[in-house]
Amino acid sequence: MKIYSYNVNGIRAAMNKGFLAWLEKSNADVVCLQETKAQPDQIPMLEFTSLGYNCYPFSAQKKGYSGVAILTKHIPQNKIIGIGIEKYDFEGRVIRVDYPDLSIVSVYHPSGTSGDERQSFKMQWLNDFQQYALDLQKQIPNIVFCGDYNIAHTEIDIHDPKGNAKNSGFLPEERQWLTGFLNSGFTDSFRYIHPEEKDAYSWWSYRANARMKNKGWRIDYCMVSNLIKDRIKDAGIDSSAMQSDHCPIWVEID
């Protein structure tokens, strides 16, 4: 099963930039989307169906904001929205699909770049999300958490570690959280396959030609439960996709 994760920075905008052609070319089994920025009636269900995908969205209550979805060629046994905490579910940040031998989650972690209040919200979310993930793992051992984590983990995951040391997304407490999350029973699938690869990023600022210069951050992850990490066949980053300020990442699970 090939699983993609893609923060599309608005699914309607991405559609106008060739998302459907990318989707068809990817031949993905499952695509986890983040930041759809659309209500369910604004999501192009028919276009996805035409390519053989079932679409399961979970939109934020606020229009044009946040939102996640899962596109899948395989009808799941269950579809679960949210994590059961109202202030987070109001923002449409988590959706899960269950298959007989694997569960897949699309998650959009908050950004703290807009100020101290949202940074505080982000840190509380991270703690609550980890508890949710650990509780879920007890029920469903074989699980993959795909999405935009809004954190670059180590210095090789960001183009300018020193210059960004005090910026949200690379703060010591955020990186420490991500280390703790991995230590609690998860594997960063990209690093599992490419442990020392540099200049491999999944997000670039729109400013100063950052993408052309490859001055990016790796903040999108497919985190695989350690119980099934031996089933990781391959993983990568599709930096050629240009529908967003992010690009798709992927993992192939046996």
Characterization of this structure:
The protein is α+β, with helices and mostly antiparallel strands and 254 residues long. 25% of the residues lie in helices and 27% in strands. The strands form 3 sheets. Strands 3-4-2-1-14-13 form a 6-stranded mixed β-sheet. Strands 5-6-7-8-12-9 form a 6-stranded mixed β-sheet. A two-stranded antiparallel ribbon has the order 10-11. The chain starts with a strand and ends with a strand.
Counting H and I runs of at least 4 residues, what is the number of helices? 7
Helical content (DSSP H or I, runs of 4+): 25-40%
Estimate the mean pLDDT confidence. 97
Percent in strands:
25-35%
**First and last CA, distance:** 6 Å
- Main sheet characteristics: 6 strands, mixed
Which structural category do the helix and sheet elements fall into? alpha+beta
- Indicate the radius of gyration in whole angstroms: 17 Å
Low-confidence stretches: none
Spatial sequence of strands, sheet with the most strands: 3-4-2-1-14-13
Number of strands: 14
Sequence of secondary-structure elements? EHHEHEEEHEEHEHEHEEEEE
Shape: globular
